[in-house]
C-alpha cells in the first residue's frame, strides 16, 4: 500500500495536530501518522492527575483557537485534553493511528519524501510519499529508568513517573523520587500530601521559580534581553525562596531562561514542594550509589530503607537544545 500526500506529519501530539489543522485551513493535503491509538497520548495516558499547564493559557493555545475566556490562567490537564478534543474535531484533524514510523528518506530524483510505517494492527509495512515532512515527535515520549547498580535486588515497587497518577496507594509508604525536574518535584509534593514519607534525589543544580515568576519573565522576554530578564527573575526568586543551598539545592551558573534556550532544560516551577522541603516533610537526597535489597545507599554516605521508587527521569541525551 502506498499513499501520496503533500505534507507528512509524524506524531499526533499538540504540535502535530496543530500543524495538520493549519494545513487543513489552507486546503493543503496532509497525513498525520501516530504510533499510539489516540492523539496527545502523553496528555491522555501518561500525565499525573494534579498536573496543570505551567505556562499561562495564552502561551499554550494552539493556532486559530484561543482557550475560552472562562478557562483558568493555568489550565488543568483534563481541560487541556478537552480543548484538544474540540480542536481536532473543529479542524477535521484525522490521524492514522497505530502507525510506527520506521524510516524517512528524501528521494532526490523524485524530490519527494518516502516514509515507511509499521501498521501495528495488521503488522504490514506501509509506504507514504510526500513533498514535505514534519517530525513532531516531541522531546520525551519514552519513560527512562537509569541503570542503577542493584536495582534488580530492590524488593519494593519501582515505577516511572509516566505511570504515576496520584499518591493514593503510597499513603503509608517510604517513597524515593529520583529526579528533580518538574515531574519529580511535583510528584514528591503529591506523595507528601497523600501521607507518604517522601524523599527526592536532586543530583544537579536547578533553578526554582514559580509560575507567576515565569509568567513575568515570559512577558519581559518580548521587550528585554534574556540575560537581563534572568537577572530580574533571579533576584525575585532569591527573595521568595532564600538560599536553598542548605537544603541541598544549588542553582546553575547560567540563568533560567538562557538555560531553557540553550539546552531545553526547564526551571523547576514550584507548586509547594519547596516549603515542604524547608519544613523537612520532604527530604532531599544526593545521587544513589547503589541498592541492596530494600536499602538504598546514597553518594554522601547516607543509607535508608524504602518501600517504593518513582523514577522521574528522562533520557535527554539526544536533545540538542536550540542554537543561540
Ligand atoms: N505542568 C507542566 O507544564 C509540566 C511540565 N513538565 C515538563 O516536561 C518535561 C519533562 O519533565 P520531567 O519528566 O521532569 O523530566 P526532566 O528531564 O525535566 O527531568 C528529569 C530529572 O531527572 C534527573 N535525573 C536523570 N537521571 C537521573 C539519575 N540517574 N539520578 C538522579 N537524577 C536523575 C535529571 O537530572 P540531571 O539534570 O542531572 O540530568 C533531571 O533533573 C520538562 O520540560 C518539564 O518542564 C513536567 C511536568 C509538569
Ligand atoms: O514545559 C516546560 O518545560 C515547562 O515547565 C514550562 C516552560 C516552557 N518554556 C519555559 C520557559 C521558561 C520556564 C518554563 C517554561
From TrEMBL:
<dbReference type="GO" id="GO:0103075">
    <property type="term" value="F:indole-3-pyruvate monooxygenase activity"/>
</dbReference>
<comment type="pathway">
    <text>Plant hormone metabolism; auxin biosynthesis.</text>
</comment>
<dbReference type="GO" id="GO:0050660">
    <property type="term" value="F:flavin adenine dinucleotide binding"/>
</dbReference>
<dbReference type="InterPro" id="IPR000960">
    <property type="entry name" value="Flavin_mOase"/>
</dbReference>
<dbReference type="GO" id="GO:0004497">
    <property type="term" value="F:monooxygenase activity"/>
</dbReference>
<keyword id="KW-0285">Flavoprotein</keyword>
<keyword id="KW-0560">Oxidoreductase</keyword>
<dbReference type="InterPro" id="IPR050982">
    <property type="entry name" value="Auxin_biosynth/cation_transpt"/>
</dbReference>
<protein>
    <recommendedName>
        <fullName>Flavin-containing monooxygenase</fullName>
        <ecNumber>1.-.-.-</ecNumber>
    </recommendedName>
</protein>
<dbReference type="InterPro" id="IPR020946">
    <property type="entry name" value="Flavin_mOase-like"/>
</dbReference>
<keyword id="KW-0073">Auxin biosynthesis</keyword>
<keyword id="KW-0521">NADP</keyword>
<keyword id="KW-0503">Monooxygenase</keyword>
<dbReference type="GO" id="GO:0050661">
    <property type="term" value="F:NADP binding"/>
</dbReference>
<dbReference type="InterPro" id="IPR036188">
    <property type="entry name" value="FAD/NAD-bd_sf"/>
</dbReference>
<keyword id="KW-0274">FAD</keyword>
<dbReference type="GO" id="GO:0009851">
    <property type="term" value="P:auxin biosynthetic process"/>
</dbReference>
<dbReference type="GO" id="GO:0004499">
    <property type="term" value="F:N,N-dimethylaniline monooxygenase activity"/>
</dbReference>
<dbReference type="Pfam" id="PF00743">
    <property type="entry name" value="FMO-like"/>
</dbReference>
<comment type="similarity">
    <text>Belongs to the FMO family.</text>
</comment>
Amino acid at each position: 500500500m502506498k499513499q501520496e500526500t503533500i505534507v507528512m506529519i509524524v506524531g499526533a501530539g499538540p504540535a502535530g495536530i496543530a500543524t495538520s489543522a493549519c494545513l487543513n485551513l489552507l486546503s493543503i493535503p496532509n497525513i498525520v501518522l501516530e504510533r499510539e491509538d489516540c492523539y496527545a497520548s502523553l496528555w491522555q495516558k501518561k500525565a499525573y492527575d494534579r498536573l496543570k499547564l505551567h505556562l499561562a493559557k495564552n502561551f499554550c493555545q494552539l493556532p486559530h483557537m484561543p482557550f475560552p475566556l472562562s478557562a483558568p490562567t493555568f489550565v488543568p490537564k483534563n481541560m487541556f485534553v478537552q480543548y484538544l478534543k474540540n480542536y481536532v474535531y473543529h479542524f477535521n484533524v484525522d490521524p492514522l493511528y497505530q502507525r510506527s514510523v520506521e524510516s524517512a528518506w528524501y528521494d532526490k530524483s523524485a524530490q519527494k519524501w518516502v516514509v515507511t510505517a509499521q501498521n501495528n494492527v495488521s503488522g504490514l509495512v506501509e509506504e507514504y510519499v510526500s513533498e514535505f515532512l514534519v517530525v513532531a515527535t516531541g522531546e520525551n515520549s519514552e519513560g527512562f529508568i537509569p541503570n542503577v547498580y542493584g536495582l534488580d535486588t530492590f524488593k519494593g515497587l519501582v515505577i516511572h513517573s509516566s505511570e504515576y497518577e496520584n499518591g493514593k496507594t503510597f499513603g503509608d509508604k517510604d517513597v524515593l523520587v529520583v529526579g528533580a525536574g518538574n515531574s519529580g518535584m511535583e510528584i514528591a509534593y503529591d506523595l507528601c500530601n497523600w501521607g507518604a514519607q517522601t524523599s527526592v534525589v536532586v543530583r544537579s543544580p536547578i533553578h526554582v521559580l514559580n509560575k507567576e515568576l515565569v509568567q513575568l519573565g515570559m512577558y519581559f522576554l518580548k521587550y528585554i534581553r534574556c540575560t537581563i530578564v534572568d537577572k530580574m527573575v533571579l533576584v525575585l526568586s532569591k527573595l521568595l525562596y532564600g538560599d536553598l543551598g542548605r537544603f541541598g539545592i544549588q542553582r546553575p551558573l547560567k540563568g533560567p531562561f538562557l538555560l531553557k534556550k540553550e539546552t531545553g532544560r526547564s526551571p523547576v516551577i514550584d507548586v509547594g514542594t519547596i516549603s515542604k522541603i524547608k519544613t523537612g516533610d520532604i527530604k532531599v537526597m544526593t545521587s544513589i550509589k547503589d541498592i541492596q535489597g530494600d536499602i538504598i545507599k546514597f553518594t554522601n554516605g547516607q543509607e535508608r530503607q524504602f518501600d517504593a521508587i518513582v523514577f522521574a527521569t528522562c533520557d535527554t541525551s539526544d536533545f540538542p537544545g536550540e542554537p543561540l
